[in-house]
Amino acid sequence: MKDAIKKMESSMSAESVKRAHIRAEQEIMTIRLAQLREEQNIKQSEMSNFSQASVSKIERRKDIKISTLIDYLDSPGMGLEIITYPKVAATSTKEKVLLKV
Fold this sequence. Notes:
The protein is mainly alpha-helical. The chain is 52% helix and 9% strand. It is built from four helices and two strands. Strands 1-2 form a two-stranded antiparallel sheet. It is globular and about 45 Å long.
C-alpha cells in the first residue's frame, strides 16, 4: 500500500500532496471521534449538550471549532490537548502544549 501511495504522490505537485494529507487527517479525525464515543459505550443520543443529529453532524465534519470539540469530548469524560511542534527538524523550537482542557 505504501508503494501505491508513493507512486501516486510522485505524480502530484508538493502542494497537492500536502492538501491530500490534510484532507486525509481530517477524515481520520472524524472516524476517531466516533470511535472515542463508541469505546465509552455511549450512543449518539446519549451525548450530553448535543442532540443525536448534532452528534452525527459533528462526527461527519471535516472542520470543527475547538470549542465544539471541547464540548463534544467533555460528554464522554475526555479532555483535549493541542501540541505545537516544529515542522522543520533543524530548529531549536521544541514541542509545546498550546491548550490542555
